[in-house]
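re the bet — no i am not wrong, look at it urself. input seq straight from the record:
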Amino acid sequence: MAGITLAQAQAKLALWMAADDKVANGQTYSIGGRSLSRADARLIQENIKFWNDWVVRLSDGGNGGVLVKAITPVP
């Protein structure tokens, strides 16, 4: 996805982390013989990883997550 800003990625990450908190407090429950299932926890975790990866990429100066420690010239 081109054009994602760091602020957008951070907002999406926060949204999915909040969803994870809600699911952690009760994935499913029943009332009067009817049951309600919340969002798939696995899908939430996949989205957390996706948006966290974007936050990391966008936070490191836009070098795609590559950290260059040293450059050795070749003769």
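see?? The chain has one domain: 6-59. told u. also Residues 26 and 32 are 17 Å apart (CA to CA). so pay up
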